[in-house]
Amino acid sequence: MSNPTPAPTFHFAGRTVSRLGYGAMQLAGPGVFGPPKDRAAAVAVLRAAVAAGVNHIDTSDFYGPHVTNQIIREALHPYRDDLLIVTKVGAVRGADASWLPAIEAVDIERAVHDNLRNLGLDVLDVVNMRIMGHIHSPGPGSIEQQVVALAELQQRGLVRHIGLSNVSAAQIAEAQRITEIVCVQNHYNLVERSDDALIDALAAQGIAYVPFFPLGGFTPIQSTTLSRIAQSLAASPMQVALAWLLHRAPHILLIPGTGSLAHLQENLQASQLRLSDAVRAELDTMAQAGGAHAH
pLDDT tier at 218 (50, 70, 90 boundaries)? Predict the structure, then answer.
């Protein structure tokens, strides 16, 4: 790709970041557990992403666990001044690779220190409080205890900004009574559209919305409509799915992940794809066709 047009930007956590970032989850081994098959390839992908203008990386110390952050440190430390690393707390991994809630104050403090140590940082730019809920969607209940614990670490200078992940509008409002919230990271993509109203409400507040599983998750979005539109645009279906999200609202920040240099290049090219109103209207019908269960 020669002389690509830079991706659009958004002001987030005191920085101007490219709206096309990078999610580091897939840098760990299968099931986000253990080391990758090819650590050198993982390092190369991170370096290529930053060289291409990516300055927003999403990670967590429970990816691996520890593995992903250690690879980020190996690849990119000392970090460029304009690089924003966003991490998350709220879970630990069992020996069997299970995902276990870790939401007591002591768990949250330990997780912050794990992220600091493995990333090689003195302070974390943004920490998302990941609420387990229903795994891919929020559950009911108060998150006050968790947000208070994270806000205390913020007051101690270990965390600059706080975000939330897998939360409802009511939980966001509850958290905002405790501290400023700079981003929300929920499950949203071309076919999973439950957060449409929330996205519009956050836009009015200038709060970044970061969809996880922007390409459908462990089962990529599949649709004859999507494939046909992609073919007509000389693009891949995944590029169209990312471009649709970029067109959806200017405060949506994308963090597609990949361990492949070719897929990285393909993802980054999505910012150059222009979707007409007619194409967007046709893509919108995918959600109404009952595709909202693609995880």
Answer: confident
Q: CB–CB of 61/111 below 8 Å?
A: yes
Percent of the chain scoring above 90 in pLDDT: 88
Q: Is the pLDDT of residue 164 over 50?
A: yes
Joined together, the tokens standing for residue 31 give 């099931």
Q: Report the SS3 class of residue 117.
A: helix
Label residue 291 by pLDDT band (50, 70, 90).
Answer: very low
Q: Which of 22, 63, 79, 209 is catalytic?
A: 63
Mark whether 79 is an active-site residue. no
- Other Cβ atoms less than 10 A from the Cβ of 222: the count is 12
Domain edges within the chain: 16-218+252-257
CATH of 16-218+252-257, one of 3.10.129.10, 3.30.1060.10, 3.20.20.100, 3.30.450.40: 3.20.20.100
For residue 68, what pLDDT band results from cuts at 50, 70 and 90? Answer: very high
Largest CA distance in the chain: 53
Q: Which of 84, 57, 68, 73 is nearest to 25 (CA)?
A: 68
Q: Which residues contact 281 (CB under 8 A, 6 or more apart)?
A: none
Task: State the average pLDDT over residues 17-38.
Answer: 96
Helix or strand or coil: residue 144?
helix
Q: Which residues pair with 185 in a beta bridge?
A: 165
